[in-house]
Every structure is written in structure tokens, then in C-alpha cells.
Amino acid sequence: FEKELQKRPPSYENLFDLLTKLKPLLQRDKEFLIYWKRAFFMLWKEWISNTEKDFPESLLKNLLSLVQKGKKKKPLFSLEEKERLFSLWDSRLQILCKQGKVQQALQEGKQLSMLMGSSLWEKRTQELVQEHRLLKKLDALMAAKKYPLFSQILKREMKKHFLSPTLWDYYIQKKNHYLQKLKGYRKKRERQKEREVIQILRDISPFSWEKKIYQNWLSQLENE
């Protein structure tokens, strides 16, 4: 096994070939499972980093047969191994959504839920796909300058998914963008542009307390 890994670089195709070769040996000696898992984790990392690659259908069938046999005795992957696989895959899933490969993400989530015998993979995919669609909708509202509607939808979604870091990060990113612009206009003393940016900040904010702060800034500008 070590010679095989040294002989050829652990590319996607070579690892897949190695896993296929190791499969018949697993039926003869369960100790080969250690090597098989090592090659599998290397292949998984290789797959995670390349969103152009689909997870091979033949490997999924190969894995499923191992999982089904394992259920009768001992599961193929331990809970710790599943968590490690899930954590690695989650980063791939986010990249797929950002690239707009929503159908590919949904298909992978479904396949992996079947493979791992847990609905968690499919649920996580659906969550991220919904978030991706929501962010696209919010971006379209920003582009169309429909700021009050943007604020209304963001506020509603933040209430529904209070602990979602994606929505908080998204809003903070937008807010920081305009605060940076505001800083530049204040430095140049461009009052009209400063006023326009504060109005946008006020209109996009999903928080009433924050809206009041921006309204105070506008009042101070008027007084000046």
C-alpha cells in the first residue's frame, strides 16, 4: 500500500483506482480496512478541493455495499470519522452554492445521506441552498435600490434563523461597505453624498435601534 502511494502521486484517479483494487481484499482480511480508509480520506480531500469533479457513481455503489454489510456487524465509519467527513464536505458545499451549482449540491447531499445512513447531509444541503437563493434575492433588491424591502426581508429571515452566521456576515459586509464609503465622503466633506449613504444605511438596517442612530446622524447633518 505504501509503495503504491509512493509510486504514483495521490491524484483523484490514482486513489480511486487504489480503492477499487483494495475492495476485494477487504472481503478476505478486515485489516485492509485501515488502508482502504486511509486512501478513502485522501480521495475525499482531493474531491472536496475540486468542485469540477462529481463523486464517482461506481465508488458510491462500492461504498454502499460496504456500509450495508457493515450495518450487520460494525458500521464502516465511526461517529468521529463521519464528523470529519461532514466537516470537510461542508466547505465544498458552500463553494458549490457560491458557484451557483445548486443542482449538483442537492444531488450530492441526497447521495451522501443515503451513503452515511443519516438525513443530516441532505438537510444541510437544503439549508445552504435556501440561504444561497435568499442572498441572491437580497442582492437583486440592493441592485434595484429597493432598500426598505431589503431591510424587511432580512429582518424576517434573521428572526427565523436567528443563529445563522451567514445572514449576520452578509449584513455586516454590506454595512461595512457603506460605512467605508461614508468615511471617504466625510473626509472630503462631500455632504450630499454623505447624506445619501447614511440614508442607505438607515434603510437597509433590519434593526430599529440602528435606524434611530442613522436618523440622528442625518439630523446632525441638517443642523450643520
| Distance between the first and last residues' Cα | 77 Å
**How many DSSP-defined strands?**
0
Radius of gyration: 25 Å
Q: Oligomerization state of this entry?
A: single chain
The domain count comes to: 3
Low-confidence stretches: none
Number of helices: 11
User: Which H/E pattern describes the elements?
Assistant: HHHHHHHHHHH
Task: Please summarize the sheet with the most strands.
Answer: none
Broad shape: elongated
Mean pLDDT: 82
Structural class: mainly alpha
Beta-strand portion reads under 5%
Work out the helicity level.
Answer: over 70%
Write structural notes for this entry.
The structure is a single chain. By secondary structure, the chain is an all-alpha fold. The chain has three domains: 1-76, no CATH class; 78-144, no CATH class; 146-224, no CATH class. The chain contains eleven helices and no strands. The chain has helices spanning 2-7, 12-28, 32-48, 57-72, 79-98, 102-116, 120-143, 147-160, 165-188, 191-204, 208-223. The chain starts with a helix and ends with a helix. The relative contact order is 0.06. The mean pLDDT is 82.
